[in-house]
Amino acid sequence: MKNTMIAPSVLAADFGNLQRDVEMINASQADWFHIDIMDGVFVPNISFGMPVLEAIGKHAKKTLDVHLMIVDPDRYIKTFKDLGADILTVHYEACNHLHRTIQAIKAEGMKAGVALNPHTNVNVLEDVIKDLDLVLIMSVNPGFGGQSFIENTYNKVKKLKAMIDATGSSAIIEIDGGVTSKNAKALVEAGASALVAGSFVFKSETPIETIAELKEISTL
After folding, report:
1. Average per-residue pLDDT in the chain?
2. Three-state SS at 116
3. What gap in Å lies between CA 105 and CA 89, rounded to an integer?
4. How many CA atoms lie within 13 A of 85 on its CB side?
């Protein structure tokens, strides 16, 4: 049986009731907290920064899956470790020296992930795939929540899974953007092992039940 990680995206939470929403995730069947850090430069939006991440970390009882949508992420690798990140994902498109960045993340004791924008081919990871713990496939253009899922994602996941299997990499595939109960099973069947869900969870009237439904659908 394949256990798929469900990672609610805190970006879609109610910031006026952040502790309540963090406690909801703690009480749910979710596996990770997915936390997007945006700088307004790499993506056309600004999300929360270090103080909010620190506040989430104080209450979160599950893995902190931190996704950096920022330029020059190397500056902050140690900072994010100190703030409690368990997984740190950087964008391929934001790193000039990707191999060095991955090694720096691992040197701090975190799991290293690399995210790919919708237009980026998975082949760009061939030379580092064995060093990675996670590859995050953006199934929408990064920057804003609530966008429509890009259908080409399924092919991309299959291609990436084939590369992972061929190289003996232990990297898992995470999907971020437009994940719902309608596409979760197909994504897992294509090779995904972690699903980020934002609006689908937090706009639900019963988020805990919505997370349970995603978990059930995606456990093959």
Report:
1. 95
2. strand
3. 9
4. 31
Over residues 49-73, mean pLDDT:
95
Reply yes or no on whether the pLDDT at 159 is more than 90.
yes
**Burial of residue 200 (number of CB atoms within 10 Å: 0-12, 13-18, 19+):** buried
Instruction: Please give the structure tokens belonging to residue 186.
Output: 């197909």
- Model confidence at 1: pLDDT above 70: no
Does residue 28 contact residue 209 with C-beta atoms inside 8 Å? no
Torsion from C-alpha of 200, 206, 207, 208, nearest 10 degrees: -140
pTM, full prediction: 0.96
Catalytic residue among 21, 31, 133, 176: 176
If you average pLDDT over residues 83-104, what whole number do you get? 97
- Residue 126 to residue 59: CA distance in whole angstroms: 37
**Is the CB of residue 42 less than 8 Å from the CB of residue 69?**
yes
Find the catalytic residue in 36, 39, 65, 133.
36
Q: In what order do the strands lie in the sheet with 5-8?
A: 5-8, 194-197, 172-176, 134-138, 111-116, 87-91, 63-69, 32-38
Active site residue 133: no
* 36 tagged catalytic: yes
